[in-house]
Input
Amino acid sequence: MAKVLNSKTTKQSRRAAKKNRKNRPAQSADMLVNVLMLALSVLVLTFIWSFWNRHTNNRNVAEEMRYYAEIPEAATPETLIANKKYPNVSVEILNGCGVSGLAAIFKDIVHEKTFDVLNTENAAHFRYDNTLIIARTENSDSAFKLAEELGISRDKVSIETDASLAVDITMIIGHDYKSVPAYKEKKS
Output
């Protein structure tokens, strides 16, 4: 009888050992999931801290810039807007002649004329003979005003509305850029 009990206990202990072996991989998988969850939690907390830090620092920088800005005491939003002739007209300048740095020069010229330049880059090709101004919205008056401010003739202004572009006017600089009066004025 003692042998039968011993054989039962050894069988039970073997079964228990087998169960423990089967449970070990599950326990290690649980441990791996826990470690991954901890790592993701640390990553999320780092992103939150970074966002908060960047947000509060930007506000402080903006406040300092306002403090040191040279805006006269009598300046109000109305007077600041009144000094800007074309407050809501956005311009895209494309270099269509291939002269390096020319779009940056025209960007400065157009800014001086109080238009907002959103983008400067190369045109699709460099074979534009004439400088062109293209109205991209229904409001073509602003394109004619830009042409007038730069001294470009009205026949170089065209209307090609394109709602997919985020600009009101596209200006393509052609090989005749040296004859544009605003450019001549800037270079003299």
The chain has a mean pLDDT of 79. Residues 1-69 form one domain.
